[in-house]
Specification:
The chain is built from 8 helices and 7 strands; from the N terminus they run E-H-E-H-E-H-E-H-E-H-E-H-H-H-E. By secondary structure, it is α/β, with parallel strands linked by helices. The chain has one domain: NAD(P)-binding Rossmann-like Domain (Rossmann fold, 3-Layer(aba) Sandwich). The longest helix is centred in the middle third of the chain and has 26 residues, at 105-130. Bound molecules: nicotinamide-adenine-dinucleotide (NAD). Nicotinamide-adenine-dinucleotide binds next to helix 1 and helix 6.
Length: 251
């Protein structure tokens, strides 16, 4: 992984940090010397990861779909006294592969809440804190499913992630005058435990065969992109969707 010395000492908040891409991001930013706040609904696992990382890591249990809980989580971050420089919204996903025709309203609402409403709530809470930083960054994690229809997926999820992309453009527009950048990364299928449980080995082989780079994504592909977007060198990059999907988006 590339080294970005400027990230040392910066304060990074990561949602969904107890598993998958968010956990890898927490470990990646910690290795760069950042103060890392790991936000997750899974109290036990997020605490275990923060304890394993060390004294620059703090776990905060929060359901990011609940406005009051989000406010309390950011107040806890304030109390730590490190400010906020980089906000990474990684919590997201879906639980059922369904067509539009078969989608039940409960699954639709839950998926929109976790992926779109929660991103709005957390970004809204992060904004006043980021305005105090000299290198403010928002990195929202979307998906290739929000960029194109690449395989059977969740229509609610794809619609929510497309919404996050557009929300991020509004953030880039509104926050540019404050020196804050706002971007997304758009991953391809990555073998995190949640996704491994949703598909068969044949699905994964078929998806990989449609990728110009010839493989599925790894969590490190996404963390490398996040570190770049958080770096000083990316200070003039804003409003973009960085496709960490091996070129699949153009097929
Ligand atoms: N894994 C993939 O194939 C893939 C592909 C494209 C995009 N993505 C996106 O990347 C991000 C991470 O995906 P992943 O597969 O690593 O996820 P994951 O399911 O492995 O981890 C998600 C984490 O979010 C937490 N979480 C869930 N609901 C929450 C809530 N309400 N409040 C706080 N925390 C909550 C979970 O406890 C978990 O620790 C998601 O936004 C997902 O949509 C993943």
């Amino acid at each position: 992984m590339a080294n970005y010395p400027e990230i040392m000492g910066r304060s990074v908040v990561i949602t969904g940090a107890a598993a998958g891409i968010g956990e890898a991001a927490a470990r990646g930013f910690y290795e760069q010397g950042a103060h890392v706040f790991l936000l997750d609904i899974d109290a036990g696992r997020v605490q275990a990861i923060a304890s394993e990382l060390g004294e620059r890591a703090q776990a905060i249990q929060v359901d990011i779909t609940h406005p009051e809980a989000v406010i309390k989580a950011f107040e806890a971050i304030d109390r730590a006294g490190h400010g906020l420089d980089i906000f990474i919204n990684c919590a997201g996903g879906y639980q059922k592969l369904l067509t539009v025709e078969k989608m039940d309203l409960e699954e639709w609402d839950k998926t929109i809440a976790l992926n779109l409403r929660a991103t709005f709530l957390c970004c809204q809470a992060a904004i006043p804190r980021l305005k105090k930083s000299s290198a403010g960054r928002i990195i929202n994690v979307t998906s290739i499913s929000g960029r194109t229809v690449h395989a059977a997926s969740s229509p609610a999820y794809g619609a929510a992630k497309a919404g996050v992309t557009q929300l991020t453009r509004f953030l880039a527009y509104e926050l540019g005058p404050f020196g804050i950048t706002a971007n997304t990364i758009a991953p391809l299928t990555t073998l995190t435990p949640r996704v491994a449980a949703l598909r068969t080995p044949e699905d994964f082989a078929r998806i990989a065969s449609q990728v110009p780079m010839g493989r599925l994504a790894t969590v490190d592909d996404h963390v490398a992109a996040m570190l770049y977007l958080a770096s000083d060198g990316a200070g003039f990059v804003t409003g973009v969707a960085l496709d960490t999907n091996g070129g699949r988006v153009m097929m």
